[in-house]
Amino acid sequence: MNKAKTRAIGFILTLVLALSTVFSSKVSAAGTETLNVGETPIGSFTFTNTNTTPIKTIKGTKVTFTVNWRVADGASGAPDVDKGIGDAKLTMKVLDASTGRTIAGPKTFKRGTGDDTWYLTNSITVNVKYGQKVRVWFDASSVGQSNGKYRSIYIRNFEAKVSK
Fold this sequence. Notes:
Strand content: over 45%
Order of helices and strands: HEEEEEEEEEE
Structural class: mainly beta
Number of strands: 10
Radius of gyration: 21 Å
Helix content: 10-25%
Number of helices: 1
Largest sheet: 6 strands, mixed
Oligomer: single chain
Distance between the termini: 59 Å
């Protein structure tokens, strides 16, 4: 390649990198995020067995995490990946991101297998220090009888409400 082409390619790459830092976008649920006062939608996801969110920095003194969920059994728009049998439950707790210590919960919510077409909405609230970093831990499991297979939960809506 000649020098002119090499310089042009170098200039374009430098320009792209510079613009990407100026026009960065907030990535929700996929990475560390800051939650300011008010309601913030975090996203939707499916998990099997357990899941821990990326770190959330809370810019307030109280946060409520709310989920709208169901078993991931293929009904009502949920993916069809659950391999368990019988009723299922979702357990949530909030962890201090620095220590891993539980600061809220666990709270457990049950969903029966006969509840074919609806989602449950549940939440967990915790008082925090301004700027505290937290993670939300989820567990999917069977209620009562189990076939030994991990349960899967579909979180249709996951949001945070931060108060001053």
